[in-house]
């Protein structure tokens, strides 16, 4: 269901036999066991739990990169946003994203309200359990929201942030993703985004950027023209989070093959795993070497973000590149991170964890890199998708942030920010016994 | 083998074709490849490693919720209890739980001593590798013990606790679980517990409750009628532990379908994944909103326990509810946690991590909720199972705790408790360099 | 491809039907779906992502066992070494290790330079996707490097260490592993090492030992004849790392069955999972009891290393032992750790995390234990393999360390070591806010 256009356009060779098998079986009235149905479903389940695990990765990464006075709040936001995404995507998101024949505005706006029902008999026409697809797709929706929480950390109020998550996961993400993966206008226009460099990562980045601009930087972050470092409180957690994300990404990209029940698809998933790993490694090594060369000291947080940028970069097209292709695409992701993190600071855009360089900028890069290896992909169509999704998500997110700011305020008080969100908003500390240096 | 009654009663449509295939193949003397055998086995392996991972989840959750002076001991207990469970379940547990035709007392007491042998040829009559089933079932036994360690943290002695684990994992759990999953009297009585809300979670909770009553609260926890907060030392770890448990639960509930080698079972596993995730999300969101409303501040530990309570609640019947069903069943789990954690404190029952509300009370709730969606399940039979397992585990655990108390003492000295178990019992600290605030 | 000899020698019964099926399908010109091809590939993918996760386990274990002033550097090394392994194994390692018919020196030295190409059509003759095999085998190469970083922590310079990793993962490991798993001379000699007790763990241990001898102990570690304890800064992380490794080991050993697409292989993977878990449990319990008996206090780090030593011990032969066999083989691993950790200190070999006892000594033990259960394995052949791999890795590693020492120095300055590598080499701290006790 995801990436209908892609299936139709470039992966038909692989998908058709699978679907064919499923239909034959259905016709043959022997529903007991269909190899492709079971294996495709299993891919969604494994891919889904790996991407679910990325929620923990974001939580650890962000908890490690904020100061200790804001850690408990960052953790709360991460658990809450994942939970909200789970509910909203069921309630309205999934039917907006995959309207089938029930578009409200064909190609642009899906089926507006139809909470997703899971407990039916297996639908053999799909070639996989629809419940497994729901489970898998939900995790992508949640990932989009996870990206936002890191950028806005340490100063945004809990409840306005969570209301934004409601809108993002219930409406914004499903609409723009439907344009491509639901068979909407972008997929007709020849856009290619295999696992979501634009639809998930850049989208999350645009929503974060809109929020960061409206929210403003943390108190004390920029003094005159200097950027004051505010080091993360726990780099072990941040590294753990990165490894979790790296692991989860095999599900993110590999599961987006959408099929495992044929030799060709199993081979494709394998290629995707290998390429995904290579891009991450290349991003990390590039950031390591670059920070050594530029600053004479390697920078662990840059290395972590380099790996993540490598992963985001390969996500738009993890199947077609050679391993050398994955290497250089991921390496450029690492370069982007090292150069754009300080650039954002120059612009006084305060992105606490570096999510905008990693997810938005490397996401754009990854989307633009697709035509180098994927037959039929064009830079024009890629740019169209990047711009369309960018404008839509940035503008709608900006409007939502503005409304929230007007109605209830989105920023904690100066006093609360200085004392830390944990005591101010939660009344508890993440590390109550470790005294502050 | 697990949930024989369930298979016979309500899931026959799915299970029979699978078993049929396995038998046909066996008869046909073409043993090379049997689709259902391999896929069912794979489900047990994936489910098993996911549930094994829950041991790490409990360790992190508990290490994060105790004070730093007791962290190393809590970690030691968690590694040790998992290891002991692995040995005891092999030595006597598995044959007690699944006696087949070798009950010592039919329906009530299994095959008393028969260390489990794994290295035979594949037994095609079962429809899966018996070694994979052993691996999977072992993890449920270990989970039961993990539940106990959190409640009794910060004051119980290491060795008496571990001796209790020997009895719990070798005898108590296997006996009560055999009543249902081994084909014993409860399964005959129409009890329904798909993945163990009662048989695993409430059972662990009852054992913990018996221990907590006999052990008494921590020094200084209750002064006159006030409860003194003793905040956990590392909420990042506690959150990580919760995410690990959430992830592992897909294996816990999904693997309990016991089959993946047919369209119907693959579809069922998918439904279970989606429902399990929804219940967790609903429990978390409910606890978030409730603590905001009740206390004007959300409470991260309540949110985490809310998610876990949602998971426990859906565990007795994760297949049959609609997603809306999973939502409200999980949400009530969250309500239970928010209201019963303070209630236990009123009763001066000191449950360090909230395991009794999460596992015992939400476990009872989840078991009672089964008849709302599962055809053939009755409140009477559910109550019977809850009460029978409750009395058995609580009484036997209580006797064991009493004997341990009489023979060797179960509580550390007052001085040791105040100084922390880490230095007193282990002579090492979890965080030796982080000075205490 | 891995363990060609093993497949040919002892597992032919299982492997042959699988390969047979694959070939039949290929011949029959019906390439759409081949059960064994897809399932074998899936085993490599699942096994591969589980072993990839071990990289996070090593990172957390080591970060937890070094002092806080060196944590960020230890994390950097772990992310970097995994990334370098990913690149080097692709660039030259894989073709050296699996030369097929293109040996430079037949049986001894593989195909010297042939970056691995992944994106071809599925090759049905192999019985699995070659890309999935690459992904899986890469993770073993990276594991070898992970072992080294722990031993040399807290005093080795970043860049010389990473250059060593380049050589280890690109050349040293692939060469010695090709002797057995690439079909080289050791496999002809009747050596047995199912998943790498010698080829991975002991090899990593030998490389670490060579480095430790040349690098020397940390300042202040040995005063006269006393060993000064330098406790790890975060035992919660160390425990998490151990659980991650335990989980990942199911992929390490289970995936090394190399096939899942037949009843026999599915059964074998299940047996391996059960045995692997038992050996870990036995190692942990043994270390727990032994440290209680010897020192009157259990020792958490010994328990963790005991579990890991149990895992290493069973790795050379996880399929053939009974569960009781796995128990005593793993338990002896635990004994080895408890007795040899202090012995290394007596020899003033400073192994920060205990990697030499765990990976080298338990690896040798595990390799020697194979003939107790595996038909056809002989102590002579096992010794031959242990000695050959040991001499090769130790000597070549020693030469590389010496060259690095001569050219650029491998040890930080005394001042940097005392101040901690984090500030000296990275200019950042892992826990900047937690003041030191």
UniProtKB/TrEMBL annotation, chains A, B, C:
Per UniProt, which keywords does this protein have?
Answer: Ammonia transport, Membrane, Signal, Transmembrane, Transmembrane helix, Transport
Source superkingdom: Bacteria
How does the record classify its membrane topology? Multi-pass membrane protein
Extract the Pfam families matched here: Ammonium_transp
Q: Which part of the chain is the Ammonium transporter AmtB-like domain? A: 44-431
- The name of this protein is Ammonium transporter
Give the range the annotation lists for the signal sequence: 1-22
**What broad class describes the main subcellular location of this protein?**
membrane
Cited Gene3D superfamilies: Ammonium transporter AmtB like domains (1.10.3430.10)
Q: Which family does it belong to?
A: Belongs to the ammonia transporter channel (TC 1.A.11.2) family.
Give TM regions: 38-59, 79-98, 134-153, 158-175, 195-215, 235-252, 272-295, 302-319, 325-345, 352-373, 379-404
Whether Iron counts among this entry's keywords is no
**Compartment(s):** Cell membrane; Membrane
Q: Does the keyword Signal apply?
A: yes
């Amino acid at each position: 269901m995801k990436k209908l256009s892609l299936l139709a356009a470039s992966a038909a060779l692989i998908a058709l036999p699978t679907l064919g098998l499923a239909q034959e079986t259905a016709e043959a009235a022997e529903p007991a066991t269909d190899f492709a149905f079971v294996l495709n479903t299993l891919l969604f389940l494994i891919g889904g739990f790996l991407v679910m695990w990325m929620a923990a990765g974001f939580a650890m990464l962000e908890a490690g990169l904020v100061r200790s006075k804001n850690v408990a709040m960052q953790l709360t936001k991460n658990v809450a946003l994942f939970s909200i995404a789970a509910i909203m995507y069921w309630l309205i998101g999934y039917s907006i994203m995959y309207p089938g024949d029930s578009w409200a505005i064909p190609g642009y706006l899906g089926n507006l309200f139809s909470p997703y029902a899971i407990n039916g008999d297996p639908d053999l026409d799909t070639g996989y359990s629809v419940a497994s697809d729901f489970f898998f797709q939900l995790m992508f929706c949640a990932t989009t929201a996870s990206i936002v929480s890191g950028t806005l950390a340490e100063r945004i109020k809990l409840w306005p942030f969570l209301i934004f998550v409601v809108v993002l996961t219930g409406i914004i993400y499903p609409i723009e993703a439907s344009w491509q993966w639901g068979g909407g206008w972008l997929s007709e226009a020849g856009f290619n985004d295999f696992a979501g460099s634009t639809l998930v990562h850049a989208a999350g980045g645009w929503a974060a950027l809109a929020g960061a601009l409206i929210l403003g930087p943390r108190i004390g972050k920029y003094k005159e023209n200097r950027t004051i470092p505010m080091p993360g409180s726990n780099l072990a957690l941040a590294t753990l989070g990165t490894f979790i994300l790296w692991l989860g990404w095999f599900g993110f990209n590999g599961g987006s093959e959408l099929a495992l029940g044929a030799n060709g698809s199993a081979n494709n998933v394998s290629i995707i795993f290998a390429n995904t790993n290579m891009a991450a490694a290349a991003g990390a090594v590039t950031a390591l070497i670059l920070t050594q060369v530029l600053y004479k000291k390697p920078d662990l947080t840059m290395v972590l973000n380099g790996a993540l940028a490598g992963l985001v970069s390969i996500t738009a097209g993890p199947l077609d590149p050679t391993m050398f292709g994955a290497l250089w695409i991921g390496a450029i992701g690492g370069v982007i991170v090292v150069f754009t993190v300080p650039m954002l600071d120059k612009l006084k855009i305060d992105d606490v964890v570096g999510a905008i360089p990693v997810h938005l900028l490397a996401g754009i890069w990854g989307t633009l890199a697709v035509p180098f290896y994927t037959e039929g992909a064009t830079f024009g169509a890629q740019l169209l998708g990047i711009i369309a999704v960018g404008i839509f998500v940035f503008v709608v997110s900006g409007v939502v942030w503005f409304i929230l700011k007007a109605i209830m305020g989105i920023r904690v008080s100066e006093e609360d920010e200085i004392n830390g969100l944990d005591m101010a908003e939660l009344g508890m500390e993440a590390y109550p016994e470790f005294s502050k240096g």
